[in-house]
Every structure is written in structure tokens, then in C-alpha cells.
């Protein structure tokens, strides 16, 4: 699957899958780049401690993915801004909590 690469004001890049309606959050820019192999990374099966440990050792908890999984199980549909928030939260380790919270707050400005 192909995805368009977008960049948030804080430099965090995120992907939008082809044929997906997308309203970028404030300050987001289309980079003009395409990721031709952007299939989502599967999360480990719940309750499989080996898979969970391996996942955590690779890069920590991807909080955006955790929240996206929980909300999908609760029947909440994923919106474009929600997808951006997932990506922002997944990059908290790289940019820190202060910048992450600023970026998430910016996604609520025009909603």
C-alpha cells in the first residue's frame, strides 16, 4: 500500500494511506514524499509475554497505538485527527512530553 508522508509543525512525520480522506491538523505540511510500503505494524497478541517484552525492548510503549487499539475495541471510529494524534503519541520518546502535548493540543484547535 502507498502512503503520503505529512510533517507536523514539530517535525514529526506521519503517513496517510492512499484513498483515505484526510484533513491535516493545523501546521501540517505534505512533504511530497510517498512511502510505497506502509502496511501497519501489527501489535503483539494480548497476553503473549514474549511478544510484549520483545516489542517493549524494541522501542518502548507506542501509546498512540495503545489508545487507538482501545478506542477501536470500544467501537469508536478513527478520524483523521485521531490518526495524527496516534502518530504524535508514538513519537513521544523522540521529542519528549512537552512537544508531544503541544502537538496534540494543536490537533484540537479546529475540531
Write a structural description:
The protein has one domain. The chain has helices at 49-59, 63-73, 80-90, 92-95, 97-107, and strands at residues 3-7, 13-17, 29-35. Helix 3 (80-90) runs antiparallel to helix 5 (97-107). Strand 1 and strand 2 form a beta hairpin. It contains 5 helices and 3 strands; from the N terminus they run βββααααα. It starts with a strand and ends with a helix. The chain has 111 residues and is α+β, with helices and mostly antiparallel strands. Helices cover 43% and strands 15% of the residues. The protein is globular. A 3-stranded antiparallel beta sheet has the order 2-1-3.
Label this structure with key terms:
single chain, alpha+beta, 3-stranded antiparallel sheet, globular
Short description:
It contains five helices and three strands, in the order βββααααα. It has helices at 49-59, 63-73, 80-90, 92-95, 97-107, and strands at 3-7, 13-17, 29-35.
**Average pLDDT over all residues:** 78
* Beta-strand residue fraction: 15-25%
| Rg of Cα set | 14 Å
Secondary structure class reads alpha+beta
Distance between the termini: 29 Å
Please state the overall shape, judged from the principal axes of the Cα atoms. globular
Question: How many β-strand runs?
Answer: 3
Poorly predicted regions are none
- Helical percent range? 40-55%
Element pattern in H and E: EEEHHHHH
> What composes the largest sheet?
3 strands, antiparallel
The domain count comes to 1
Number of helices: 5
Strand order of the largest sheet: 2-1-3
